[in-house]
Write a structure and sequence with these properties.
alpha+beta; single chain
Amino acid sequence: QREMDLAVEARSIERFARNFADDVDVLVPAIYWQWSSPVMNVQEYIEAIPGNDMAAIRAAGLDTQVLARRGTDAVLKMILVDGLFHADPHPGNVFYLPGNRIVIIDFGMVGRLSQSRRAEIIDLFSGIARRDAEAITEVVLEWTGDAGVDEHRLSDDLEELLFDFSEAPLKDVRMAVLLRQVTAIMREHSIVLPADLTLMFKALITLEGLGRQYDPDFRLVEHLGPFLERALTDRRRPGALVRRGRDSVEQMTGLLAGIPRDLARLMRDARRGRMRVDLDLKRLDHFGQQLDDTIDRITVGIMTASLVIGSSIVMTVQSGPTFMGVPLLTVLGLLGYLVAFFNSVWIIVNIWRSRRG
């Protein structure tokens, strides 16, 4: 619905135009508001070469490698710096002007990233560049929400993924393949990728495909490096450290200020009988199995003690029928002792194994 509202698209175009106002190599068409509305979007007409017309691009003498580099830098700036990005950068939405200048159109599908989300993305890409599975796992866990996830298994899967790429030089890593495999691992762990990240992954995969059309040696990872380095450097600046410290203090102050209100709400729910306590025993099945094993050992122990006592009693009786000259009750007593012996061995071995496990 937002894509079909042309007034929303027009406002997005103006935001992108402001973000690239200082970049002479990237042009965003101007909007004529006097003729625009939610059902009509009137933009500046620009005579340029379509991005999907390779013959015209070569005939105009444009440098496809420069076009790939500038287009990639523009999209990465949108994602990592501005937090507002074109979510569908395919060749049909790009035009070219003399001097290898780029014109971007069709801003109906737009993604937005908060400051915290951009920080997570930077940590993700930085972890990929360093082959740091732990850093990647921490970022992915931030995206799980309240869903229960086996963190150790998730970390192992990501470690295995990085191992598959460990021998390849970073410049040879295809971001589209890597992002698809990360997404597949998240699906295996029932982690739903947030909508803004879904759009961002789609944009990066589309961008890498576009870049490879213009330059067979194009590697998106190589273009990520300078942006990551700049972002990590900015984090260490005094102003950024002060800002994060101030935000932490404000959050802590808000938390402390909210305690009386939360306590009052808790007491009110308790008086109304609406207070509920959820108990989650993660190892309940294991506890039940241990309880069953304990009961089995107790039962066998009682039976063993009964056999010993019963066998001792019958062994004292010398009268009665005989078997090969031996009193039958004596034979039964010996069999009882033998069964009690094997039961005792079974109990001892079972306890020894359970303690070692």
